[in-house]
Amino acid sequence: MDKFNLYAAQMLSFNEQFASKGHNACKGCGIALSVRQVYKALENIVVNIENAKWDIPWQPERALGSNKDKSKLSLLTIEKENGETLEICFDNECSDNKIDNNNIIKRQSPIAAANGCKYVATASPSHPFDLIDKIRSAYKSSGSAFVQILCPCPVAWDFDSENTVRLARIAVEARVFPLYEIADGYYRISAQENNPRTVNDYLSRQGRFSAWKKKNIDALQELVNNSYANLIEKSSKGL
Prior knowledge:
It is globular and about 50 Å long. The model is unreliable at 1-7 and 61-71 (pLDDT under 50). It is of the alpha/beta class. The protein starts with 29 loop residues before the first helix and ends with a helix. Strand 4 (119-123), helix 3 and strand 5 (145-150) form a beta-alpha-beta unit. Helix 1 (30-41) packs across helix 3 (128-140) and helix 2 (101-108) runs parallel beside helix 7 (214-237). It has a seven-stranded mixed beta sheet. The relative contact order is 0.14. It has one domain (23-237). The chain contains seven helices and seven strands.
């Protein structure tokens, strides 16, 4: 059995806190799926989640048009009970329609970690329980917190909408988007991939990379390898 079929949404909370009457996002929208999981994570913790502030608004209707009119990443800010803030970045990479070296590096060492955040993490809707645990940990942390969630976009990334969760998981398995957290300066990898997929396996499933040459793919593979090695080193040393 394809292990992607083991993704069981029914094992999550049954209470729908997000768009119970529907929404106008595209079919297979990674942001819509991620927001849904975030709202479930904060159930019974944040009473008025609907009042959270979208510092960079999510406008799903923009994704219904041409690629030139696609939506960009969105930033949701939630005020915690202790007066600190939890910022959640729903990143569908549509601000530049590509993966480049800077994006990879920023994921490996989130700027937020160097700006005083007590808790920083990456998450993916392909790993819902990991995502939920991190959102709750971020909310309960003593200081400000930041969580970056990978949100595949079928329209801009050019893949079939039923493969959103699959592609998100492959991003993790190819170590392009590793899942980890930094709590009070300590690194922990939350999804270790000992037999990773290749970067090409991830890129080849998306039309947006159809023009990439082998040298570009090889260069990105080397960068991913080095970045992940650096992440392992930080995690093993407890930095």
